[in-house]
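Open question from group meeting: does this chain pack into something compact, or does most of it stay loose? Before anyone orders reagents, we agreed to write out a predicted structure and look at it together. Recording both the input and the output here so the notebook holds the full record.
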Amino acid sequence: MNEKILLVTGASSDIGIKLIEEISESYDCIIAHYGNDNSNLLKLKEKLKTKLILLEGNFKEEDKTYEFVENIKDIGKIPTDIVHLPAGKFENIKFSKLTWDKFQNDINIALRSLVIILNSFLPIMAKNKYGKVVVMLTSCTTNIPPKYLASYVTSKYALLGLVKALSTEYADKGIRINGISPSMIETKFLENVPELLVKQNAMNSPTGENLKVEDVIPMFEFLLSDNANSITGQNIAITNGNIM
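Structure tokens returned:
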């Protein structure tokens, strides 16, 4: 393995930005995926220069997702490690108001994109006998989920199934695949959630507050490090003191 290359999908998110800031010194190159807004990533690129490669990809569209993968191959930077963060819009909707299109959209963004990416890069990782994959899940997969999040929760459980299945299939290839399941994190991802619900969630926490971005970054760093070489197929909950 000549270079350590990290692919971060959903890198324009608050978690993606903070993770890249904290972990950049551990990698020779970081490929940062974004959907349509790369303004925060551009600020980060001013600091990291050529180490950070910004790459657009519309995961809502299957052909655009394949195009994203081909663009990575074209630049010759095959990832050794992958962090997968994308998710559909987080909003409270009663099941009776949901359509299949909403489920399909969430699945396309979160699950299909990762399937296409891993189909391309896991065989290369397996040949090199090395690779780390860390997938953002949710504490909804470790406990009773809240109401009115059916499409979001379904897509996250599907991702958990992929983590479990692939961690077994690639365990003897030196590849470690794990999920991280935090409870509510105060980021722009919550912009469509009523403020009252965010405050209620904080009040129900033993600490009296929701998670902050900096609370979850250390677990990503750990699972990407050599210290996690013996850990695979796990769904690690970060719950701010709540027992799951």
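Observations to bring back to the group:
The mean pLDDT is 92.
The two ends are 39 Å apart (CA to CA).
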